[in-house]
Amino acid sequence: MYAPSKRMQRTVTDRYLPPDREAFVAAEPPSGRIIVIAPTRAACETIELALGLRIPTILEKQHGQEIRELAAAGKGFGIVAGTGTGKTLSIRPMAETILGTDALKVGVVNREREATPETPTWNVIIVTTGIARRWFQDGDILPTDTLVVDEIHQTSAELELCLALGKRVGCRFIWLSATVDPSFYARYLNAAAVLETSAFDPAKAADVKIVRKDPRTFLDDRFLQHVVKERRGVGMFLPTRAGVEEAAEVVRARFPRINSAFYHGGEPIRIIRPFLEGEEKKPYFLAMTAAGQSALNVQGLDTVVIDDTRFSNVIERGKNVLTRLHLGANEILQMAGRVHGRVAGGRVFILSDRDIHFTSLKPTAPEFQLAGDSERVAMTCADLGVAADQLELPVPLDRVAYRKAVSLLEQRGIIENGRLSRYGKSVEAMPVDRPWAELLVNADDELVPYLAVMSSIESLHRMTREERDLSGVIVPGSDHLTAYNLYAEAFSHCGYIGEVYGLPRHLFDESIESWAEQRGVLVKAIEDAALATASIYRALGMELPTKMVNARDHIYRKFTELLAQYMPFDLVIDEHTADGTEARVSKTSVAGSWGAIAGDLRYFADRSGVPRAAIEGTQIPMQLIHRYATRGKVEVVYDPRRKHGPLVLKRSLDYFGFELESELETVDVFPDDLAQKARHALAEAMARGDARHFAVKQNRDVIEEIREAYKRSGGTTKRLGLPELIGLYEEQLAEVSSMEAFRTARLGVDRDRFVPRDVRERLERLPDQVTIRDRDVEIDYDVEERDGERLGVARLRLPEKVARTLTPAEIPKLDRPVRFVVLRGQRGAVRADSLDELQERLAQPWSPDEVEETQDDRTMLSHAENEVRRIAGEFRRHRRGGGERHGARHGPRGGSRSHGRGGSNTGRRRRGR
């Protein structure tokens, strides 16, 4: 339903690719180039610095000769080394050996340092993961090049794509990692050797204690007095920025003698530079997020406090669900390794509600992120002209999510015939996420300053602290424009145009700190937005604005019209998505709860582990939604609730998966062009038992007999599932052309056509029950279909009390494999292929049916299982607030009243596509 604008779209230049690709490829040295892939911009600077130094290191002392020999032999290899061993410094001797020269010409390409005409002269090029992926897509990385992947354990979707693309090109890999089980990387990247080293000194092993306290309770007077008395340097690692800030404030308020500070991803590193350079005097307390501490060497640190908590995205049914988890062994070992075995008298406190045997912890394999970014995979494959299964990805691809991503990109005109379209190429070249790139490519010049800034800010929530002052900058109904106004005010009060690495950028003077403190804004969010905004302007070939004007009603109207026309974001109307999922407006949003909101939909797990959705973005008036909605195709629908006219023609008004309105017209005589659809709708209603026809009740017992025979035969008789039954009825309706003819039609099901009498009699003699512990246990016969083969099984319907203690010796011998099911009423059913699996699942706090809906053909289930699923479904809906109150609010089909900003109302029903 979407098509790119017909008007001339913007010309976009990818400034991160070599300006002259032919010159770049022609200048490839015989040895190939060294392409160093770094996880962050800061890591690029560190590696660039390391390539200019010659410092004796532990790694050089232990493995220097081996590193040079492996590099000279043209073999790929890995290095797993702890903090402080000098693995980054080892890149220089590798590069000199491979290139055969100590005259290294080093260049960096990242978001603030773009490719230049001098780039072909570089023999060592340092790039971030996103830039590396773009170079692969452009064909700039050749088989002769050596890829040096620094901090490979810091997994990301971009890095994992780069690994797969490097394998596709045929590059040699040298990889560097902190504490991690290297076996996967060694196998996947075909490493000839893995060199492991550590700065661990057994004489300096830390005193490690597991404490069952939360962070705030742990920071009591006794602990802090001990810190002061022993003049300790304490680092506390917490999962959230709010927790980090709170911990630092608690210590600062209660013990002013302790130098207290915090650092997380929203803060510029300069605020803790005294700790990194050894200028901060003990005692000190530094609270950090796990992500913030990963590459920092804090001087004088001798005490580490670890909160055993992390928030990670877990892929659940194709959604990235933010879930609270315990730390993995790798994270604990890396954090504790700041002092364990490195500092005399070191102490480690792990705050956890579980028993952790620290000395038994071993590094584990990495946790990959690529499964949650199917759209990125789809665009990369389309740009290269390859199928996803041609890339040897490090993690299995979610094929359902991948197909959905390809379908979405095709609908949006980004992919055509398996390749990026001209429009898709422009979108891909923009240095922002795809939704914002589409808006920038299609917007007029007046909106570009606003879009450039908004696309550079992750979210208003992440831009601001919990205590914030938005007075005078709020654009009611738009988190996006409110975030822009904060940036515009920061630039107006504290900013100027300057240059960094010879490129123009918005810069800020020292007064930005006091402004940010007053507003409750993170300085790093402003600085990162300035960097990203500058890269967008360079991609568009436009000059940076010298003035930033606050967004008001005029810009709100233009922005919402652009959004309504293209709608590249997630869309929620009346707190529901197009597929009916409830999605609340974020508590920190300035948008209203009702009407249409376009923005970023984020999923998180609540305390019970149930995924919830929240959105923040921009509210769009419903009149704009209607202006850009499209009329859907005419459908023929059978509605059993309409007693006197159940067959209707339905004409809908659709908008990006939402059905805003529908018109129903009763059908008595079938129109010629819709007759076949009408017969199919009637056949489907018959098969589902919804149709008002005497044959529905008359055929019910025969259908059940045929289905039971199919299961008892192990799939050797004809199947009569829903598709087959629809086809059977459709055959008999071939000459029917009106509802009157339908009501009088003879619609039968011949059991002998599906199961001959002699076969039926033989199958009826199979036992219906077995005796276990003097109790009659029902047998449900079934057919399993795996790898295209059918297998008849017998499922024992066990009481839960018996199932929990049953032993293999008590299982009766039958003529087919035995499976198990325990029916739990409103809690659903527990199924398993083996007794061990059944007992393990019964020990879990939730039944599988309580966690997720299954997609089996319910027509083929036994009556008992169908009844249990019905009860469990009603229980789930009641527990999640979907009972009568929900139905009254949204109508029998999810219909509701929408209230847009403009005040218009419309009735609608939701239907996903």
Keywords:
913 residues, alpha/beta, 7-stranded parallel sheet, 6-stranded parallel sheet, globular, disordered C terminus
List the helices and strands and how they pair.
Layout: H1 21-26, E1 34-38, H2 41-50, H3 58-72, E2 77-81, H4 91-99, E3 106-109, E4 124-128, H5 129-138, E5 146-149, H6 157-169, E6 172-177, H7 183-188, E7 193-197, E8 207-211, H8 215-218, H9 221-229, E9 233-238, H10 241-254, E10 259-263, H11 273-276, E11 284-289, H12 290-293, E12 303-307, E13 310-316, E14 319-325, H13 329-336, E15 347-351, H14 374-384, H15 399-411, E16 415-416, E17 419-420, H16 422-429, H17 434-442, H18 448-455, H19 460-463, H20 479-494, E18 495-500, E19 503-508, H21 512-519, H22 523-540, H23 553-566, E20 570-573, E21 583-585, E22 596-605, E23 611-620, H24 622-627, E24 630-631, E25 635-638, E26 647-655, E27 658-666, H25 675-688, H26 694-712, H27 722-732, H28 739-744, H29 751-754, H30 757-764, E28 769-772, E29 775-786, E30 789-797, H31 800-805, E31 818-823, E32 829-832, H32 835-842, H33 848-851, H34 863-879, H35 884-890, E33 896-899, E34 905-910
